[in-house]
Amino acid sequence: VDIRGNSIMDCGGTARYAFMAGPKGGLVIRNAALCRIHNNRIRCNSNLAANLGLFSIDLCTIYGLTMTDNHVQHGENSDALMESIAAGVSYGSPLLGVMLANLCGAVRVSEIHGEASIHNNHILLSMGTGGGLVLGTFGDNEEWKRWAARIKATAHHSMTNKEDAEEGTVSGEPVITSASVQGNHFESLADQPFSAFLLSRLNELNFSSNNVRTKTGGTAPGIIMGIGRGIISNNMLDILHLDQMGGGCLLYTSDAA
Predict the structure, then answer these.
(1) How far is CA 125 from the centre of its chain?
(2) Which end of the chain has less Cβ packing within 10 Å, N or C?
(3) 163 φ/ψ angles, rounded to the nearest 5 degrees
(4) Can you tell me whether residue 150 is helix, strand or coil?
(5) In angstroms, rounded to a whole number, what is the distance separating the alpha carbons of residues 82 and 22?
């Protein structure tokens, strides 16, 4: 799947025939392999008070992803629920970050395997709250593991037998997720907490040269957890919560506040 050079605007708005279909985000892809998303401008709105939580880019069950040079904007039109969402939870808490990341936001990539490159994107929250980037494998669905094995064999023109696919391997090699998140700009224009990024349950992670900019310091926690091995270097961050990284290195990271 190649998607490039598009302008997808105002998804989640009220349309004349909205009652005929369920609301979706700006770019929604399911069950695809070797996706390339480049140089698109995508804007989406949510309204949590009306139980409408969307993501401008919403990808699920993907094998192999390259997402570069996109401008992705999300706005949450109702902040009426923020007091109840954040009740008793500090703005810098990782718990709040996880909660916000799963409500609505700019980019969500769940059940991802293979190589994932997310580079040089501008991820903007224009109003309200939500998540900037949610990336990882968030379930242990056996059917998905078998699907990933079959897709890997097809994508690489490899030979595999039924037993290999059922075991979730191809030619004895496990299906892993290696993510590179570099050179992205996360920004919020609102005086509200938002989860800049949530990166979870990845085999490998290179998180470098990213920038988080907020209107109010201390309101944009970034969360990295459950990483096999990784490199985190040369980022300008508001708050970073790091948990359960098996190996790797953490180099100079500057507080932008």
Answers:
(1) 14
(2) N
(3) -65, -40
(4) helix
(5) 24
The one-letter code for the residue type at 8 is I
What residue type is assigned to position 220 of the chain? A
**Contact between 231 and 199 (Cβ < 8 Å):** no
Q: Mean per-residue pLDDT for 133-156?
A: 61
In 3-state terms, what secondary structure has residue 210?
A: coil
Looking at residue 61, its pLDDT comes to 87
Q: Output the CA angle 165-108-243, nearest 5 degrees.
A: 85
Q: Which CA distances in Å does 20 have to 25, 39, 42, 53, 56?
A: 16, 31, 23, 18, 20
CB 44 within 8 A of CB 73: yes
What is the identity of the amino acid at 128?
G
Q: How would you class 155 by CB atoms within 10 Å of its CB: exposed for 0-12, middle for 13-18, buried for 19 or more? A: middle
Range among 74-88, 99-113, 119-133, 212-226 with highest mean pLDDT value = 119-133
Strands 221-233 and 239-250: parallel
The reported pTM is 0.81
- Residue 9 identity: M
Which two structure tokens, joined as six digits, stand for 31?
């069950």
Cβ contact 97:82 at 8 Å: no
Contact criterion met (CB below 8 Å) for 39 and 7: no
Amino acid at residue number 248: G
Query: Hey, which residues does 191 pair with through a beta bridge?
Result: none
C-alpha dihedral sign at 246, 252, 256, 257: positive
Q: Is 103 exposed, middle or buried (0-12, 13-18, 19+ CB in 10 A)?
A: buried
